[in-house]
Amino acid sequence: MKPITLFGKMLSFSRLKLHTDDLTAIQDELSVLLKDNTSVPVVLDSECKLDLSALVEMLWQMGVQPIGVVDGVLSEQANALRLATFPADGKRMERIKPTDSRPAPRKADNTNANNAQSSEAKPSGQAGESANQPTAQKEATATQTQTAPLGLDTADNTSKQEQGVTSSVHSQMLRSGQSLQHLGGDLIVIGGVNKGAEAITDNSLHIYGHGQGRLVAGATGDKHARIFCQKFNPTLVSVAGTYCLSDAIPPEMIDKAVQVSYDEDKGLIFTLMA
User: How far is it between the farthest Cα atoms of the chain?
Assistant: First the structure.
């Protein structure tokens, strides 16, 4: 039996709105509001810039568990501390289209390719398991509960698949607030995904730049889908509906070339690409 199993689930949390950078005043007010309450998960929403590291430390000492910040003045510090960033109220994601689409192999051929990839990507954490590879790749796993597909419109799914699978290429950078979604094939992003943006596809996702936003592959449940990212540091990563937030991603994967796949027993598998 493996030493641990990490499960994730959606939890209710409160928003802590901050109107001052005075940590003493914040602590005094929280002491009154919380009283005997402990283990309160919160998202921080600040109107002014303050020392986020000191604030987080103070909150933990009070029994308040900060899990992220609302996108704004604290976003840069949150990224450095590897806290999640959530969109601000009223800020809708701008849905954009890929800059280019092209026909991909037929579905049957694509399935065979996926099966071949699956056999090649077996866990290589133990010595001797990858005899035909020159060096064993480092990998880590994080298992999360199954969730609904993240943000991908599935209308006309059947008709689009009947028309043929296509792979789409987006050559520009995805900026904060932009959502790039593709149904029916792989999605290739050449410019990278900024924090606050998202790239979603029902097949595999390829990021040839910095992946800092939400990266979602296999959004309609394809367990053979994968994510390939040249510089990996997302706020959320998901394959086949199984997700992982930034604070649960193995630290040795951050800012490295990483492949993310799904295993029914292990959940998400993170593998460094040489």
Answer: 63
